[in-house]
Structures are given as structure tokens and as C-alpha cells.
Amino acid sequence: MEGVYLEDGAYEYLFMPVSFQGYNARLETVDPNGLAPDALKGDWNNGYEEFGSLDDPCLEYAVTSITGQSVRSSESAAQRRPGVRLVEGLSLPEISRRPEGMILLPPDDGRKD
Hints:
Helices cover 10% and strands 9% of the residues. By secondary structure, it is largely without helices or strands.
């Protein structure tokens, strides 16, 4: 699986989609009916979106909830190029800008650009 590199000033991040299922000591897992969501959003948007696309209703809701700013785009999905891009014009709360507890890539991580 290939990750997505994003840069923000002096910081560089690598995002990887992750999926897992956990069990406790009795081999019990999540209720078969799932977890109760905080907000109901459709998982299906009449097709698949590129990883990180704000046309994904769940991601759009999450980013809007975190930033307090609407991320609805005025462009249609057909007008945008596929791929993962940074969202322009959003600012995260100051506490979110501090990468404490995250793994930071060294300035020269040996990858070829």
C-alpha cells in the first residue's frame, strides 16, 4: 500500500489508510450491529472517491467538525482532478498545529522526489 505525503511548512506527514479489528481477552469484538455514531452520514456517495477527497461525506463532516469551517467546494467533482490535494483556505485550531506525539520524518529521509 502506498501512502500520501503532505507538507505543511517545516513539517512533512505520511498518511496511510488503516483498517483493523480488535478483540479483548475473551476474543469478543465490536457488537455485530456496529458502534453508535456521533453523527449519521452516508458512507456511499454514488461512487468511490479518491483517498482524502472532501466529496466523501464522512471526511467532509470530520474536517468541518475539527476546523469549524465549511469545506463544501463550489466546484463539481468532474471539474477537479483526481488525487489527494491540500484544502486551500482552511486553518486548523492552534492546538492542532503542534505535532507533539507524532512521528516526524527527518529532513533527509532518503526518498527520491
